[in-house]
Amino acid sequence: MTKKVTLNVNGQQHTVDVDPDMPLLYALRDDLGLNNPRFGCGLAQCGACTVHLDGQPVRSCITPVADAEGHRVTTLAGLGTPAKPHPLQTAYVEEQVPQCGYCINGWIMTAAAFLAEKKKPTEAEIKDALSGLKCRCGTHVSILKAVKRAATMMG
Amino acid sequence: MTKHEKPSTLSRRAMLAGAGALVVSIGAPLGVDMLLAIDSAKAQGGRPPLTPDQLSSYVAVAADGRVSAFFGKMDMGHGLHVAIAQMVAEELDVPFKAVTVYMGDTATSVNQGGASGSTGIQLGGKQMRVAAAEARRVLVAMAAEKLQLAADQLTVTDGVVHAKSDAAKKASYAELIGGRYFNVQLDWNKQWGNALYAPGKAQPKNPSEHKIVGQPIKREDVAPKVFAQEDYCTDIKVPGMVHGRMIRPPVAGAVPVKVDEASIRGVKGAQVVWQNGFLGVVADREWDAIQAMQTLKVEWSKVADPFPDQTALYDHIRKAPVRKAQIEAQTGDLDAAFKSAARVIEAEYEWPFQSHACMGPACALVEIKDGKVTCWSGTQKSHFVQQGIAATIGVPAETVHVVWKTGPGSYGRNDADDCAADAATLAKAVGKPVRLQYMRDQGTGWDPKGPASVHKVRAALDSSGNVTAYEFMTKAFSRVDVDTNGSKEFDTLSGQTRGVALKSGDGFGIPAESYGFGAKKAGWEVIPPLLDRASPLRTSHLRDPVGPQIHFASESFIDEVAAAVHADPIEFRMRYIKDARDRALLEAARDKSGWQSRPSPRRDQTGAKVAGRGIAYAQRNGTRVAIVAEVEVDRASGKIFAKKFTVAHDCGQIINPDGLAKCIEGNIVQGISRTLWEEVKFDRKAVTSVDWMTYPILDITETPEEITCVLINHPEIASSGAGEPSIRPVAAAIANAIFDATGVRIRRVPFSPERVKQALS
């Protein structure tokens, strides 16, 4: 059974007619045409699908779309733009972090929520905050450099 | 336009149009307006064929003077396109930013082998360089005619040919050929793929003249990635598209004997595609396709358990019949040396099956429309997939267009080519475009695996501790049970499940180094696959195919011999290494890492945490890498922290040092992951490591504190590869460091905490 679900994504209202139990990921990707988040595992194990719900990172691959109703959904595209980048996006470009780049949505969205709450984090705190994410290309050294750079930019 | 742009919708003609003019061949100049009025297929009549012997197959100049480079390979995340643009810009004497590299599109490039064997620059770049040099020669000749000057009186600055003595006498590339095709024949060696080479009459520049090659230029495709502006292969949609999902058997080798289509009647638009062992579903919506996949009732054939108990894997390899054996290197009288040896040292090493476990499972979209087939894929080898899809659906290859788009990671022959063939099979069956993405368990559980292996090594020593003979023998699953590309139906899951005749390949490899032992023998034996058809343990190329396995064994063993004669591991190696570049490399790693000369192990540490350092080195098709690893071992938990790496790297001429350093960084980290954690798990029936919990990889908390690269540049030596060589010695460097710290030798990968703890107890 489908149901009309109203989503507020990156500041815009959308109504989708979907199975309310369908993960939010598929509504964002298939119904709204947003190329981020990405499907990595569908099991909340890798983070590639991460979006913010009211500023908090959630794994959209296991979040029922109906649960997002009434909340502000933010995706990577909503985090910043080339004209007005989030410090993490600037830092990612500066540090030339990604290789295949499929994982970066998860790292940036998770780190953005973390840095919004934690000023001047230690390296151990950064690692702990990001420990639930995966990168297969092995860009971890650059990821840490970029997050530290962004943390500095964010004061 | 950015450098990484891949023309999924633009025709070659439209791309070349640049600022609006049309592209015609030199021999057939047509009016722009007239050409615009005819369709692109006809317009191509004015263009040379897309064949390896045509300059226009590699380079074109648009009406605005911008240069397009059409590259039959593609970037797997190392910024290869940046290096290619540097090489092309260098030879053409145009600014770096004037060059756009189009990668891996079968409609715009010839088959240069795809991403393969770290040959992006080594072979692919070599071709692009000679093509660009020839383009410059032709353009200078055209300018000479136009300006009525001798060619040797001309030079080129930023895409403008001008007299050396008078810069006012000039003609720009845009004026000379902008918007028209080169119509210049190259001297093609009649080879396809990696071996393709087609130089013109021009000689490339002397490296001493290079201004753009060698510069640390950044990737332009990073920003589109972080701002979510780049379409990956997973993001492509076409009108009328449906979503596909595949269904794999619960017991490997089983095939569907009964499929209850009524069981998914409640799933909107769901449709079953069942052909022999091939079983998939499609639905209009992706979530519905997943529901149908999960809901469909299938009765599977009863088959004997296909696999041995995992604990018996290495016994199985040792006892298995040999399908093919090869001695690849043999010098001196090995038997005599072992007979007269004062001492013989022997050891065996074991490496498990490993998965590509890419960040996302493979995805492909196939559209069959109006007699033409289009496939969007993250494959490493689009020109081969073109052939594979043609064979799979029974159409001529020239009607198939494969568009390469960035995929969810690729480190060799992963699941991408299987996915393209599966998507083509589904699309043909349902008569609609099908976007197929595998599920996580299929990506990790059903990708072709890196082969498991056993390596038996022995050395003969004389009474002074000199190595007089060395033997290295591998017994393993093949590196090419399925081949490195999806061009043949028997190499894809689609073909294998549908029942095509099988053709499994054989191959492995031997250590690549320059140790000059008196007598030397190195070879391999390959055993049959555990299950010959549609096996989740079929084996193929995983980053630096068989290199990590072989050099884990060979470079651990050299360390064992050094320890046996109480020699410093680097000094011991230096006694035997013949190659001057190898020697310089080891010295560089030694000096940069602050290596203290002493034998291993240390024997001076007490307490729960001990530290050690290890060296390992290897060659790979011209490239050499030496790695010093510094590790900490928690004796109580068995956990290894691979803390610091010093990597000396010599790949001849460096095109882009920043890109190279990033490439090495990824190799080292992925190498640590494969060494410490990665092992495909299976039971008697199936692969059981199917996600990130059951197939763990390195975590951010385990990131090395430091990876220091010493990039040895040899501008005078042709570039060799970098995509894979530096992963090769990682496992041995870590193993040797663990031995240095603890005095315990671990001869089986991965060095999981349980295994290390057990070894230490």
3D architecture notes:
- The complex is a heterodimer of chains A (155) and B (761).
- Helices cover 36% and strands 16% of the residues of chain A.
- Chain A is globular.
- In chain A, helix 4 (104-117) packs parallel to helix 6 (140-153).
- Chain A has helices at 24-31, 76-79, 87-95, 104-117, 123-129, 140-153, and strands at 3-9, 12-18, 50-53, 56-59, 72-74.
- Chain B is α+β, with helices and mostly antiparallel strands and 761 residues long.
- Among the domains of chain B are: 12-205, Aldehyde Oxidoreductase, domain 4 (2-Layer Sandwich), CATH 3.30.365; 234-302 and 362-438, Aldehyde Oxidoreductase, domain 4, CATH 3.30.365; 310-355 and 448-527, Aldehyde Oxidoreductase, domain 4 (2-Layer Sandwich).
- Helices cover 28% and strands 21% of the residues of chain B.
- Chain B has 20 helices and 26 strands.
- In chain B, helix 4 (80-92) packs parallel to helix 5.
- At the A-B interface, helix 1, helix 3, helix 4 and helix 6 of A face helix 7 and helix 18 of B.
Write the layout of secondary structure elements.
The complex is a heterodimer of chains A (155) and B (761).
Chain A: E1 3-9, E2 12-18, H1 24-31, E3 50-53, E4 56-59, E5 72-74, H2 76-79, H3 87-95, H4 104-117, H5 123-129, H6 140-153
Parallel strand pairs in A: 1-5
Antiparallel strand pairs in A: 1-2, 3-4, 3-5
Helix pairs in contact in A: 3-6, 4-6
Chain B: H1 12-17, E1 24-25, H2 32-37, H3 40-43, E2 59-61, E3 67-71, H4 80-92, E4 99-103, H5 120-147, E5 154-157, E6 160-163, E7 170-172, H6 173-177, E8 180-181, H7 222-226, E9 242-246, E10 256-260, E11 271-275, E12 278-283, H8 286-295, E13 297-300, H9 313-319, E14 324-331, H10 334-339, E15 343-351, E16 363-369, E17 372-377, H11 382-393, E18 400-404, H12 416-430, E19 434-437, H13 440-445, E20 453-461, E21 467-477, H14 493-498, E22 519-527, H15 547-564, H16 569-576, H17 580-593, E23 609-620, E24 623-634, E25 640-650, H18 657-676, E26 706-712, H19 730-742, H20 753-760
Parallel strand pairs in B: 1-8, 3-4, 9-19, 17-18, 21-22, 25-26
Antiparallel strand pairs in B: 2-3, 5-6, 6-7, 9-12, 10-13, 11-12, 14-22, 15-20, 16-17, 16-19, 20-21, 23-24, 24-25
Helix pairs in contact in B: 4-5, 11-12, 15-19
